[in-house]
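For homework, think about our next protein:
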Amino acid sequence: MQQVAKVISDKGIFILIELFFILGFTLLSYKYNLYVALGFIPFCFLVCKPIYKSNLFFTVLLVLLSLIYGYYAGGESAFRVIKTMVVLLPFFFTNILRYEQFHLSKYFYLFIQINAILVCVDFGLYFLIGHTIMNFTESGFLPRPCGLLEDSNFFSYLMLVCIFYYKSFYGFYNKLFIISLFLSGSFSAIISFLILYNVFERINVEKECDVKLKLVIIIVTLTIIVGYDWIAINSDSVLNFISELQVNDLLKVKIASMTHRLATISNAMSEMNTISDFMLGIGAGKTRGLSEIGLNLHNSLLQMFLEMGVILVGIVILIILIMLQNIKKVKYVILFCTMLVLGSMMETFYNPLLAFVYFISFSNIYKCNFQNTI
């Protein structure tokens, strides 16, 4: 491992992390966990760098936990611990991110642009010939194209972040990106975009986030997450109310999807019967079997709690809080917390959106320099 680490320079870490994100967002790599294998390579760099001793503690801790989970719950749970560590990859390289100048390369911009074009083309092809180039899901009578990604929600959330990231460098919103976000059909992403657009236009989001503002943002975020989880866990009365609503067909589809998620979460909570279940969870992958159509809970942290227990969730929450502490600009604090909220409504944690926002929050190349590379 030390030989591998010696050939990886500080600059090389940025290349590996960016490639990790591209693979992490891409259909086949995400589906077969290829991005996890790539993401594990930079951890070799930690072995011979004394500046990483504090973060190395988390690495060693999570590796030890993988052995514990493997013993009690099997190999899938052990892999889930390792995968969790890798998904949080940029956190372990905060020292480099703070002091090196970097930005997303032109290759990442090209990757995003190709995805946006594919979504727009597939949306049109669906109505013209009934077929698309890439995969898609249907929502009522509308397609939900996802470009090179596995899921339209993954695409739309990634595009949501990129729209505001590239706005900082170009000085204007990329219309292609916005159109593709709307055509992807994610109601939560569209609502989030409209809210963030109005917020970002009214306040100076490029300034550093002071303690009071960051605290307010975190409290609002936690209130939404806890409120949604409470509704999900106590969903019987909510589901009865929703079933009686008179709405149009498209909203009925959205409501049916939401009620199914709420019912699945409510049923899943009854699976935790022992202290061992509470501490170590019921086992990785078990929540999928709680749904008659084979869906997970669509709630990243709650699903992790049910499958992996309070130990892993507690460590992950601690890392997330440290990440929030390290993020300086208002814009990225808001984007990070937005991804946290959306992760409470969709299964997005292992699609490395949180880590991506954290990574780009350290980007420090100004507009004029960035434009010269495109």
User: Anything to note?
Assistant: The chain is about 65% helix and 0% strand.
